[in-house]
Amino acid sequence: MEQMLEDLKRIEAEAKSRFEQVGKQEELNELRVKYLGKKGELTAILKGMGKLSGEDRPKVGQIANEIRQSLEEVISAKTKELKEAALKRQIEEEKIDISLAGTKLEAGHIHPLTRIIDEIKEIFLGMGYEIGEGPEIENDYNNFEGLNLPKDHPARDMQDSFYITEDTLLRTHTSPMQVRTMAAKVPEYPVKVICPGRVFRRDDDATHSPMFHQVEGLVIDENISMADLKGTLLKVMKQLFGEDREIRLRPSYFPFTEPSTEVDVSCGICGGKGCRTCSDTGWLEILGAGMVHPNVLEMAGYDSSKLQGFAFGLGVERIAMLKYGIDDLRVFYDNDIRFLGEF
């Protein structure tokens, strides 16, 4: 018995000393197996307890359990110490020097076309207009016939269209929204609405794109005249380009308006005196407009002898090019972040 107790004390002292000296978790695990495992040194000594007397066996067993518990506590404390040391090393190795310059994140920008559309919306909302939207795929009636353009009308050749079927096409202008708006509201009036959106034609060069944006405007009420049209457009142009701008109306032709007019805005570069930008005329063409044709009103169900209206179509790209001094329409769609950064 005395020899067994001495061996247990020796193992306890030796194990504690070696546990305290290890520097890695793997080494600690190996030592735990060496002293406390199923084939460890403590277990080997306890296997000899069968040779002890019945009186000595419980005493030796109690001491062995106390030694095992003591060693387990040392192992637990050492494990915690090693984990904390490993975490400290990881933090030191992975720390970030916040004194270094960070990576600059590129800020986004509102596209100039979106900016112009939003600006136009705000102007017309302030004048009591509604905002309407419609499909980009239209039927032939809404795109042409309902706008006083029957199937054999020569003015259809002015718009080279993308047809999907014989009766379906990508809308060539936002004017079909006139037909849709009147159909939805007839016989109610007044009607005051603008309809921004994309339109499609077979054009592609520095001043034309197969896809571009328009803002359609429509007003229907009693006693509407060209004076109302001019006053409205003058107010809009002044808010878009500046209070010093003026407009002029030139006779033109559109099948869905009568009379029809092209609208010019005074050149902001030369102040209307004439320069290269305005071809020495002092004016820049900006949009088309006119009084709603009586046939268009009648086809929609309105009494043209009682009601009148005016309509206009703003080219968003055209306005953006004039406002920001852009000379090539294609840059709007090149997806070049350097271009967007200018705005």
Structure description:
With 343 residues, the chain is of the alpha+beta class. The protein has two domains: 2-94; 112-341, BirA Bifunctional Protein, domain 2. Helix content is 41%, strand content 20%. It contains eleven helices and ten strands. The protein has helices at residues 2-21, 25-36, 41-46, 56-94, 112-125, 140-143, 176-185, 226-241, 294-300, 316-324, 337-341; strands at residues 130-131, 137-139, 163-165, 168-170, 191-200, 211-221, 247-254, 257-266, 283-292, 308-315. The strands form two sheets. Strands 1-5-6-10-9-8-7 form a seven-stranded mixed sheet, sandwiched between helices. The protein has a three-stranded antiparallel sheet with strand order 2-4-3. A hairpin with a 2-residue loop joins strand 7 and strand 8 (257-266). The chain is rod-shaped and about 130 Å long. The mean pLDDT is 85.
Domains (count): 2
Q: What gyration radius follows from the Cα positions, in whole Å?
A: 44 Å
**CATH architecture designation of the largest domain:** 2-Layer Sandwich
Helix content: 40-55%
The strands making up the biggest β-sheet line up spatially as 1-5-6-10-9-8-7
Low-confidence stretches: none
- Measure the end-to-end span: 94 Å
> How many E-type strands?
10
- CATH T-level topology of the largest domain: BirA Bifunctional Protein, domain 2
Arithmetic mean pLDDT: 85
- Give the full name of the CATH homologous superfamily of the largest domain: Bira Bifunctional Protein, Domain 2
